[in-house]
Write a structure and sequence with these properties.
Chain B: Its EC number is 1.8.7.1. The complex is a heterotrimer of chains A (about 100), B (about 550) and C (about 150). Chain A is an alpha+beta fold and about 100 residues long. Helix content of chain A is about 20%, strand content about 30%. Chain A has helices spanning about 40-50, 75-80, and strands at about 5-10, 20, 25, 55-65, 65-70. In chain A, strands 3-2-1-4-5 form a five-stranded antiparallel sheet, covered by helices on one side. The longest helix of chain A has 10 residues, at about 40-50. Chain B is an alpha+beta fold and about 550 residues long. In chain B, about 60% of the residues are buried. In chain B, about 35% of the residues lie in helices and about 15% in strands. In chain B, the strands form four sheets. Chain B has a five-stranded antiparallel sheet. Chain B is globular. Chain B is built from 17 helices and 20 strands. The longest helix of chain B is centred in the first third of the chain and has 23 residues, at about 5-30. Chain B has helices spanning about 5-30, 35-40, 65-80, 100-110, 145-155, 225-240, 250-260, 260-275, 285-295, 310-320, 350-360, 385-395, 425-435, 435-445, 500-520, 525-535, 535-544, and strands spanning about 45, 50-55, 60-65, 80-85, 90-95, 125-130, 170, 185-190, 195-205, 215-220, 320-325, 330-335, 345, 365-370, 375-380, 410, 450, 465-470, 475-480, 495. Chain C is an alpha/beta fold. Chain C has a single domain (about 5-120), classed as TIM Barrel (Alpha-Beta Barrel). Chain C has a five-stranded mixed sheet. Classes of the chains: A alpha+beta (about 100), B alpha+beta (about 550), C alpha/beta (about 150).
C-alpha cells in the first residue's frame, strides 16, 4: 500500500541541484524526502531565509516501502534526471531507469 | 565579421561586473529570489527542471572559430561536456552553478560573446538568415543591420520592462530562412525602384498559444531610419501592450485587437515625432559596420569541379550543401540530427571540431541555424571532401538536411520547467523509424517540428508536420498538426484530431507519409500535396 | 518612517502634494501631478508651463510603461522634476535616469551611495535618449554632443 503524502522540494541555491526536504536537511535523493503537514510553510520560510535553497515548494507524492514517488511526471523527471541522458541522471547504471517516470 | 572596438568591449565588461555584483547580493541574501529572478533572466540564467540553465546569445547566428571554441570549452569547464543549439540561434548549457555564472560571462566577454537579454521581457537577441553573406539571392547582407539593431537594443533603457519578450528577425531575400513573419517584428531588407536599400517591416507575428503571421506595417522605411522606426514601434507596444494577462501580452495580441491599420497609424505618428529628435546613428556608423562584413576573404577564379566518386560523400553533398554566391565555394550545413540523437545537442569535442573546420575551411565563420544545425558558410568546393571526412568521423555528417529526420525539437520535459511532455524521446523514435536515407529522400523536403508545450519553442505551428506535447491527466499525449510552413509562404498547421501516445504518433506520421506518397503528383513536396488535397485524406488514414 | 527621496536637481522641491491626472485637470493652480501606468502622459502636454513636478508611479517594478511616459515628456519639452515613485529598485535606477527621471522615491529606501554606484553601471551608452549622454556612435564618428 502506498500513502499519499506531501513533500517539499527546491533547488540548491548555489549548485541548482534538485533537492528534497528530509526533516533535518536537504537530500538529492527523493527517497529521503519526508512527509510534511501544516508545518510546510514554516519550514519553507525558515529554509529560504538561510539562503541555501530556492524555488521551494510543496508537491504531492506517494510513499511505500521506504521509497517516495512524486505524483506528477514532471517531479519524477526532476527526481531522476533527463531520461534521454541517463548517464547524467541519479541512476546512471540502470538502463531501464527512464521507465520509472512514466 | 563584426569586431568589437573598445566601446563594445566596455559594455560587455560592465555587464559582467554588474552581474557579478548581483549574484553576490543574491548569495548574501540582500536580494530575494523574486528580486533576483528578473536580473538573472536578463543574463540568460534560468532555473530549469534540474539546475540552472545559461542561454548564451549568438548575435544574428554568426560566430568565428575562436568564439565557437570557447563555447566548447565552457561546456567542459562549467557544464557536463555538451551544449544545446536552439531555435533562436543561441546555445544553452543545462548544468550551470550560480556562483560560476559570472565567470562564464567573463570567459565569453573575452571572445566578444555575452548572454545579454537572452531572456526577460526585453528585446531579445536578433536572429537572421543563416546564409547571410553567402546566399546568391540576397539584396544585401542583413547582418550589418542586425548589428546596428544589436547595439541599439543592448541595455535600451526604455524597453527593459516590456509587457512581454520581444523577438526581432531580419532577412534580405525573398526566400525566408529565418521564419521572419513569425516574430514580434520581422524586417526584410529590400531595394526600392530607385535602387535604395530600405526595410519592409512586419509586426505581430509569433507562435505560442495564439499563433499569428505578422502583417506588413510599412512597405519601405529608408535603412537610415530603421532605428527610429523601431523606437516608435516598441514605444507604442510598451504603452499599449496588455499587461493584465501574460498570455495576451505579446505584440501580436495588441496588433490583432486594435487592428494593423490603427497600430501602423500610431507607429507612424510616433515615428514622425522621433525623426525630429535625431537619434538615428549616422550613415558613417552603418558604413563602419558594413565594412567589417564586406569581404570575408573569398578568392576568385576557383573551379566548381567536384569529385563525386565516393557515393556517401555525393549523397551528403546533394543533401547538405547549398550553392554559394561565389564560384568555387559552397555553403555546408552540419546536421546536429543524427539518428537516435538529441536535436541540437553537440559535445564539447564536436563544437571544437566545428571551430577548427571553420578556421581551416570556412574563412573562420560559422552560423547557427534556427533549425538547430551549424553552417559553414564559405567552404571551397575543393575542400568539401576533406571537410566531409572530418565531420563523418565525428558523427556530424548525417545527410538529412530538410528531410523528415532533420527535426526541430525543444528540450521538452526532459529539461524544461514549462514543458508538459517530452520532445526528445519522440524525435529519437521518429528518426529511428525513418532511419533509411533512401526512404527519407523519397519523401523529400519534409519539415517536422516538435514542441513539448504550447509555448511552441519547437515551432510546431510551422512544421509541415507539427507535434505538440500536452499533459492529459498526468500522461504525456501528442497532438499532430499538418500544413504549417515558415518560408515565404508562411502558414500555420491544423490539428488532425484527437491526440496520440508517443508510439501512436509515430505510427500516425507513417500513415501521413503513406498518403502523401500515394497521392502526390509530379514533383510535389509533402506540403504541396497537403495544400492541394487538404486534411480529409490524411485524417481518414490516421483515424479511419 | 521618513520618506527617502533621492533628488538630482538644484531647484527647490515642490511643496504641493501630487494629485491625480483627473484632479489636476480640474484644479487650475496645481503644480504637481502623479500619473499611473495606464494614464496617457501626453495628456499633460497642454500644462507643461505650470507643472513643476510629475510623479510617475510604479506599482510593480515589472510594469515598464513609466519609462516611456518619462522619456516622452522630456522629448516634448518638460523640464520640471520627474520623480519615479513606488516599487523602484536599485538595479533600475540607471535606466530610469536615462529616460529622464531626476528624482526617486522608492518604497524600499535606497542609499545615496548605492544609487551613485548604480548610475555608474554603464561607462558608455549605445542609445541617444534624453539624459544628454553621448551615445557610442557619436563618440565613434566625432558627432558633437547631444
Amino acid at each position: 500500500m502506498s500513502a499519499k503524502i506531501k513533500i517539499i522540494t527546491g533547488n540548491d541555491l548555489r549548485t541548482g541541484d534538485v533537492i528534497w526536504w528530509t526533516g533535518e536537511g536537504w537530500s538529492r535523493h527523493v527517497d529521503n524526502a519526508v512527509a510534511v503537514d501544516h508545518d510546510a510553510d514554516a519550514i519553507i520560510a525558515r529554509e529560504n531565509a538561510r539562503q541555501v535553497v530556492t524555488d521551494t515548494h510543496v508537491i504531492d507524492a506517494f510513499a511505500a516501502d521506504g521509497t517516495v514517488r512524486p505524483a506528477h511526471i514532471k517531479d519524477r523527471i526532476r527526481a531522476l534526471g533527463p531520461t534521454v541522458r541517463l548517464d547524467l541522471s541519479l541512476k546512471p547504471a540502470d538502463p531501464q531507469a527512464g521507465n520509472w517516470v512514466i | 565579421m563584426y569586431q568589437y572596438d573598445q566601446h563594445d568591449q566596455a559594455m560587455v565588461d560592465a555587464r559582467v561586473a554588474e552581474f557579478r555584483g548581483q549574484v553576490a547580493r543574491r548569495l548574501s541574501g540582500e536580494l530575494t529570489e523574486d528580486q533576483f529572478k528578473p536580473l538573472r533572466l536578463k543574463n540568460g540564467l534560468y532555473l530549469q527542471l534540474h539546475a540552472y540553465m545559461l542561454r548564451v546569445a549568438v548575435p544574428y547566428g554568426t560566430l568565428n572559430s575562436a568564439q565557437m571554441r570557447v563555447l566548447g570549452d565552457i561546456a567542459d569547464k562549467y557544464d557536463r561536456g555538451y551544449g544545446h543549439f536552439t531555435t533562436r540561434q543561441n546555445i544553452q548549457y543545462n548544468w550551470i552553478k550560480l556562483a560560476d555564472a559570472p565567470d562564464i560571462l567573463a570567459d565569453l566577454a573575452k571572445v566578444q560573446l555575452h548572454a545579454i537579454q537572452t531572456s526577460g521581457n526585453c528585446i531579445r537577441n536578433t536572429t537572421a538568415d543563416h546564409f547571410a553573406g553567402a546566399a546568391a539571392d540576397e539584396v544585401a547582407d542583413p547582418r550589418p543591420y542586425a548589428e546596428l539593431l544589436r547595439q541599439w537594443s543592448t541595455f535600451h533603457p526604455e524597453f527593459d520592462y516590456l509587457p512581454r519578450k520581444f523577438k526581432v528577425a531580419i532577412i534580405a531575400s525573398e526566400t525566408d530562412r529565418a521564419a521572419m513573419r513569425l516574430h514580434d517584428i520581422g524586417i526584410q531588407i529590400v531595394k526600392n525602384e530607385a535602387g535604395e536599400i530600405g526595410c519592409k517591416f512586419f509586426a505581430g507575428g509569433g507562435m505560442g498559444r495564439t499563433p499569428m503571421i505578422a502583417p506588413c506595417i510599412a512597405e519601405f522605411v529608408p535603412a537610415l531610419q530603421m532605428i527610429s522606426f523601431l523606437e516608435a514601434a516598441l514605444r507604442v507596444y510598451n504603452r499599449h501592450g496588455r499587461r493584465d494577462n501574460k498570455y495576451k501580452a505579446r505584440i501580436k495580441i495588441l496588433v490583432h485587437e486594435i487592428g494593423v491599420a490603427e497600430y501602423s497609424r500610431q507607429v507612424q505618428e510616433e515615428f514622425a515625432h522621433i525623426l525630429t529628435l535625431g537619434l538615428e546613428p549616422p550613415p558613417a556608423e552603418l558604413d563602419r559596420i558594413k565594412a567589417m562584413f564586406a569581404d570575408p576573404g573569398l578568392e576568385t577564379g576557383l573551379s566548381d569541379d567536384l569529385d563525386r566518386s565516393d557515393p556517401d560523400f555525393a549523397l551528403w553533398v546533394d543533401q547538405n550543401v547549398h550553392a554559394h554566391k561565389q564560384p568555387g565555394y559552397a555553403i555546408v550545413t552540419i546536421s546536429l540530427k543524427p539518428t537516435g540523437g538529441i536535436p541540437g545537442d553537440a559535445t564539447a569535442d564536436q563544437i571544437r571540431l566545428m571551430a577548427d573546420l571553420a578556421r581551416d575551411h570556412s574563412l573562420d565563420e560559422l552560423r547557427v541555424s534556427h533549425a538547430q544545425n551549424i553552417v559553414l558558410p564559405h567552404v571551397k568546393k575543393a575542400d568539401l571532401y576533406r571537410v566531409w571526412q572530418a565531420l563523418d568521423a565525428a558523427g556530424l555528417a548525417t545527410p538529412n538536411l530538410d528531410l523528415i529526420t532533420d527535426i526541430i525539437a525543444c528540450p521538452g520535459l526532459d529539461y524544461c520547467a514549462l514543458a508538459n511532455a517530452r520532445s526528445i524521446p519522440l524525435a529519437q523514435k521518429i528518426t529511428e523509424r525513418f532511419a533509411d536515407v533512401g526512404r527519407q529522400r523519397e519523401l523529400g523536403e519534409l519539415k517536422l517540428k516538435i514542441s513539448g508545450c504550447i509555448n511552441a519553442c519547437g515551432h510546431h505551428h510551422a512544421g509541415h508536420i507539427g507535434i505538440l506535447g500536452v499533459d492529459r491527466k498526468g500522461v504525456e499525449n501528442y497532438q499532430l498538426l499538418l500544413g504549417g510552413a515558415e518560408s515565404a509562404d508562411t502558414s500555420l498547421g491544423t490539428i488532425t484530431g484527437p491526440g496520440f501516445s508517443e508510439d501512436g504518433v509515430v505510427d500516425a506520421i507513417e500513415k501521413v507519409t503513406d498518403v502523401y506518397l500515394a497521392r502526390r503528383e509530379g514533383a510535389e513536396r509533402f506540403l504541396d500535396t497537403y495544400r492541394r488535397i487538404g486534411m480529409v485524406p490524411f485524417k481518414e488514414a490516421i483515424y479511419g | 518612517m521618513v520618506e527617502t527621496v533621492l533628488r538630482y536637481r538644484t531647484d527647490e522641491p515642490v511643496a504641493d502634494p501630487a494629485v491625480t491626472v483627473d484632479a489636476f485637470a480640474a484644479q487650475g493652480n496645481a503644480t504637481a501631478v502623479r500619473i499611473e501606468p495606464g494614464d496617457d502622459a501626453l495628456a499633460l502636454l497642454p500644462y507643461l508651463d505650470r507643472l513643476a513636478l510629475i510623479e510617475v508611479n510604479f506599482p510593480s517594478f515589472a510594469d515598464g510603461r513609466g519609462y516611456s511616459a518619462a522619456r516622452s515628456l522630456r522629448e516634448r519639452g518638460y523640464t520640471g522634476e520627474l520623480r519615479a515613485v513606488g516599487d523602484v529598485l536599485l538595479d533600475q535606477l540607471s535606466h530610469m535616469r536615462r529616460c529622464g527621471f531626476d528624482s526617486f522615491a522608492p518604497d524600499k529606501p535606497i542609499s545615496a551611495e548605492a544609487a551613485e554606484a548604480a548610475f555608474a553601471t554603464w561607462p558608455e551608452v549605445y542609445q541617444q535618449t534624453v539624459d544628454g549622454r553621448r551615445p557610442i556612435w557619436a563618440a565613434r564618428h566625432g558627432t558633437k554632443d547631444a
